């Protein structure tokens, strides 16, 4: 008789393995059925009031009851999801209640209100700073034009020096060069001028400079005190900050 080849041996091994698996499944099914039956008996016994002696007798008659029962419980525990974790997960994914929604909405409204209040406060402070800066430039322009156009023949040099003190840059250099000669002519002519500023408007400004429009009227006073018509002026004044003080840097007559 010829020896079996490798292929036939493989078929035999597979068949034996399949038989073993089938037997194992039968044993497992029998164990599950026994566990179910014993669990039912235990429930019935607790319902009928079986005592410790009865339980001992039951265990002696069925020595594998405890092991099978533990195996069944372990199988149930493995197959069932953990209830505590499932409940915690459901707690986190549950829909928010209306009270929680109201609290979130209130927090949102309060946050928005605080943000709007802060923005309004910042805008208010910025507006106040601009108003103070504009008033500062307007006062400097009024003061500078008054000094420039008001000259008393009796003390022309002092008035001219006041105008130089209110000036900076190129305007100051020009006044210092021509001031002495101008003062001498005014003193010799005995003619004085007085000015009244009617309006001042800041056209543009930064923190250190500004352009201001000035409307003014000047009066010329002669030695005989004769009456002469007033002269009207529209003047553009460039202002610059010099050592913390605002001074005139350029004057253009727009009359």
Automatic annotation (TrEMBL):
Main location: membrane
Protein name, UniProt field: Mammalian cell entry protein
Gene Ontology annotations for the cellular component aspect, listed alphabetically: membrane
Localization terms from the record: Membrane
Ranges in coiled-coil conformation: 7-41
Region spans: Disordered: 41-66
Membrane spanning residue stretches: 102-122
Highest taxon of source: Bacteria
Source organism of this protein record: Mycobacterium spongiae
